[in-house]
Amino acid sequence: IKDLHKSYQMGSNSLHVLKGINFSVEAGELVAIMGSSGSGKSTLLNILGMLDEANEGSYVLDGVPIKNLNETKAAQYRNKFLGFVFQSFNLINYKTAAENVALPLYYQRMPRKERQEKAIKYLEQVGLKDWATHLPSELSGGQKQRVAIARAMAAEPKVLLADEPTGALDSKTSYEVMDLIQKINDAGNTILVVTHEPDIADMCKRIVHLKDGVIVEDKKVKQV
Ligand code: ADP
Ligand code: MG
């Protein structure tokens, strides 16, 4: 990311949210993007996730400049590189845990049997194999987020982007979800976690601190 700027236009008013962001993430990193509410964390993550575009500056993902891509190309890169996890889980209520995990694979046109097997495999990795046939309404918040993580991982992305993944969870459950994120990172995935909670950021390997649209600190976390 180089000299990245983003403004939101609202009528004749413009809100300058990202004011020259520079940073780069290497494969295998576990990075927290920290900052108080309104500091531009989600805006930055959405640009990294190719869900939104910057007004100025450059973004290169795996050697590919991400600029003026048509929607088909953007979707291709998103599917190939990126997995998403959100604060509110975004599971489909009338589908079981396994069906939720398998859904993105359906859109990748993976055959039914293969995607069912994959869904079970990834549910097992997040410790929820026995919950495969349960609906989201039968799961706790932490379990729902683990299903959402399994869904993101089942597509085998290189980079996992998580926007406040523990924002709707109590502390104990938050730490369990972060343990899982650390485990996935240990297996080699690059992960960026947006959070406003210092204790969650401390469970990452690096903290990028955003304030009012600029990076005010970028530091390695001491491993305990
Ligand atoms: P954070 O995730 O750190 O809380 P955001 O990136 O969501 O911050 O928002 C940064 C600022 O941009 C806030 O003032 C927010 O109101 C504003 N903002 C975010 N998205 C939009 C949008 N789509 N249109 C207009 N303003 C927005
Ligand atoms: Mg946000």
Structure characterization notes:
The structure is a single chain. The chain is an alpha/beta fold. It contains seven helices and eleven strands. The protein has helices at 41-48, 71-81, 97-107, 112-125, 141-154, 171-186, 198-201; strands at 2-10, 13-21, 30-34, 56-58, 60-61, 64-65, 82-86, 159-163, 190-195, 206-211, 214-220. Strand 1 (2-10) and strand 2 (13-21) form a beta hairpin. Helix 3 crosses helix 4 (112-125), helix 3 packs parallel to helix 5 (141-154) and helix 4 (112-125) crosses helix 5 (141-154). The mean pLDDT is 95.
What's the structural blueprint in terms of helices and strands?
Elements: E1 2-10, E2 13-21, E3 30-34, H1 41-48, E4 56-58, E5 60-61, E6 64-65, H2 71-81, E7 82-86, H3 97-107, H4 112-125, H5 141-154, E8 159-163, H6 171-186, E9 190-195, H7 198-201, E10 206-211, E11 214-220
Parallel strand pairs: 3-9, 3-10, 7-8, 8-9
Antiparallel strand pairs: 1-2, 1-4, 5-6, 10-11
Helix pairs in contact: 3-4, 3-5, 4-5, 5-6
Question: What can be said about this structure in brief?
Answer:
With 224 residues, the protein is an alpha/beta fold. It has 7 helices and 11 strands.
Could you tell me how far the N terminus lies from the C terminus, measured between alpha carbons in angstroms?
30 Å
Order of helices and strands: EEEHEEEHEHHHEHEHEE
Strand order of the largest sheet: 7-8-9-3-10-11
Quaternary organization: single chain
Uncertain regions spanning at least 5 consecutive residues: none
Given helix and strand content, the structural type is alpha/beta
Number of helices: 7
Structural shape: globular
Helix content: 25-40%
List all distinct small molecules, including ions and cofactors, that are bound in this structure: adenosine-5'-diphosphate, magnesium ion
Number of strands: 11
Largest sheet: 6 strands, mixed
Gyration radius, rounded? 18 Å
Fraction of residues in β-strands: 25-35%
Mean pLDDT: 95
